[in-house]
Amino acid sequence: MKGLKTHYDPFGNPNDEYSFSDYGYCGTYISDGNSSGYKSSVTCKKCKKMFEKTDAERLIARQQELDDMQGYVDFVNESPNK
Ligand SMILES: [Zn+2]
Known about the structure:
This protein is mainly α. It has one domain (about 5-80). Helix content is about 40%, strand content about 5%. The chain contains one helix and two strands; from the N terminus they run ββα. The chain has a two-stranded parallel ribbon. The longest helix has about 35 residues, at about 45-80. The N and C termini lie far apart (about 70 Å). Bound molecules: zinc ion. Zinc ion (ZN) binds next to α1.
């Protein structure tokens, strides 16, 4: 078999080889369990790109959350009525 890629499948059960999603993270149909919940085992470039992007977005969102919290703290500290 040539070019059988391992797709990222965050919903598959790694302890059960018969449990995997119908579609990989990139939207490719998974016909015979050529997927993995472990990012390090993934060879599909599309899947990698997808979860790298998602991870980056999660980091940005987290940073924004922290900024918002800091903004709130600043707001409370600047509030005159205390
Ligand atoms: Zn894929």
